[in-house]
């Protein structure tokens, strides 16, 4: 399962799944995840690999993602929710079935990088925060989250999830329940 052993072949495969802007984001997430893992004591290779794979299905047609989710009995709550979340859940399935990734930590990091969840592992937190703060990201508040990520990974993740929740509410979109439980879990532990 050591996909990093042949990084060049892995990157060719990843790049084939997405447009250039998404690929540049993916490279930024992998690099950022490795740095955060080194800082906080997670496995840097797993973090980098999860970073490369986190958006594997992001550019796929929603019908294709929905088919994967339905075939794998994903909850109706997910299927009836925001389609922006589907790529993470479909991605975890696809990287396992098509790329042979079997490491549960990597699969969970990919699955929950968008929603979060209560009781996130260190690797899940690293990948989730890396997705928010990679160098190509530019949105109000990203610099504050980047700064927090250098001091306290949990505080950075709570701030990121809180910003996502606020944004979704302002857009009158649904907030996936896992995101709320992830935020509540992080805040209650601080």
Describe the protein in words.
With 190 residues, the protein is mainly alpha-helical. It has one domain: Hypothetical protein af1432. The protein is built from eleven helices and no strands. It has helices at residues 7-15, 20-40, 44-53, 62-71, 76-79, 86-97, 104-111, 122-133, 142-151, 153-170, 177-189. Helix 3 crosses helix 7 and helix 6 (86-97) runs antiparallel to helix 7. It is globular. It starts with 6 loop residues before the first helix and ends with a helix. 38% of the residues are buried.
Q: Structural class of the secondary elements?
A: mainly alpha
Gross morphology is: globular
The domain count comes to 1
Helix content: 55-70%
Give the CATH architecture. Orthogonal Bundle
What is the beta-strand fraction? under 5%
Q: CATH superfamily, please?
A: Hypothetical protein af1432
Question: Number of helical runs?
Answer: 11
Gyration radius over CA: 16 Å
List how many beta strands DSSP finds.
0
Report the uncertain regions: none
Tell me about the largest β-sheet: none
Task: Look up the CATH topology.
Answer: Hypothetical protein af1432
Q: Tell me the span between the first and last alpha carbons.
A: 36 Å
Order of helices and strands: HHHHHHHHHHH
Which CATH class applies here?
A: Mainly Alpha
The average pLDDT value, as a whole number, equals: 95
């Amino acid at each position: 399962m050591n996909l990093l052993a042949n990084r060049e072949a892995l990157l060719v495969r990843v790049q084939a799944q997405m447009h250039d802007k998404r690929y540049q984001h993916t490279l930024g997430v992998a690099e950022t995840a490795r740095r955060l893992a080194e800082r906080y004591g997670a496995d840097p290779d797993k973090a980098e690999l999860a970073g490369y794979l986190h958006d594997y299905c992001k550019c796929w047609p929603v019908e294709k993602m929905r088919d994967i989710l339905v075939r794998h009995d994903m909850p109706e709550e997910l299927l009836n929710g925001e389609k922006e979340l589907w790529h993470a859940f479909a991605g975890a399935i696809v990287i396992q079935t098509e790329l042979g990734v079997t490491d549960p930590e990597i699969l969970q990091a990919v699955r929950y990088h968008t929603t979060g969840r209560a009781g996130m592992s260190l690797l899940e937190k690293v990948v989730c925060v890396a997705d928010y703060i990679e160098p190509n990201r530019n949105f109000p508040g990203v610099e504050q989250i980047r700064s927090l990520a250098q001091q306290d990974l949990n505080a950075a993740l709570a701030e990121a999830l809180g910003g996502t929740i606020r944004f979704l509410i302002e857009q009158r979109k649904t907030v996936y329940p896992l995101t709320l439980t992830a935020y509540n879990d992080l805040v209650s532990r601080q």
